[in-house]
């Protein structure tokens, strides 16, 4: 059964995190990068997303997010080409008109040794309005009466906490629907669900993330028992 995982977060150390996502420098030793790309970059970046992130770190307001990120598990039921089509669809829906970069990693699971493909999508919150601005103006405050004199408007600008919460729920739903569409068109019956187990009517606790260090410390018997428990839980969910 395909596993649903959609994590959303923000941060300020954008260029450092971009190196991790793109597996640049010493991060390259991980050897799990299978695809990467970027889009909607302003002209002053010269097509280099790291120029964008360094400028964002410099010019975004000090208490604001420099980047937004979505990390999404890709279904193992799909092959490489099918998952790349899914990634393209997800990026177009989650970062329309916004500067972004993405990377697909496929490390082997520490627990079961199976490939664990997932996509990291980093995006700026600044929406394109067709106005060409230099870097220092690009990240300045938006001017609604004279947009050409201010910075780009933020996607989250002017929204209250409840509206932002609804945006998170809507994003999770879009991700699930997009994954399910690609599973369906590629002939798979399995589906993912963005709702909590409680909202799905499933009476069991959600799985916790063990982490590589804890998994390495497990005995072979403990691993087998945990994997068996996961299989029983997933079976009851799909029945």
Features:
5 strands, 2 domains, 239 residues, alpha+beta, 5-stranded antiparallel β-sheet, 8 helices, disordered C terminus, 13% strand, BirA Bifunctional Protein, domain 2
Detailed description of the structure:
- With 239 residues, the chain is of the alpha+beta class.
- It folds into two domains: 6-185, BirA Bifunctional Protein, domain 2 (2-Layer Sandwich), CATH 3.30.930.30; 197-238, no CATH class.
- It is built from eight helices and five strands, in the order E-H-E-H-E-H-E-E-H-H-H-H-H.
- The protein has helices at 14-22, 49-59, 80-94, 135-138, 161-185, 197-200, 212-216, 220-238, and strands at residues 6-11, 33-39, 67-73, 100-105, 118-123.
- A five-stranded antiparallel beta sheet has the order 1-3-5-4-2, with helices on both faces.
- The protein is globular and about 50 Å long.
- The model is unreliable at 226-239 (pLDDT under 50).
- Residues 139-161 are annotated as: Disordered.
- It comes from Rhodanobacter caeni.
- This is MobA/MobL protein domain-containing protein.
- Keywords: Conjugation.
- It holds the Pfam family MobA_MobL.
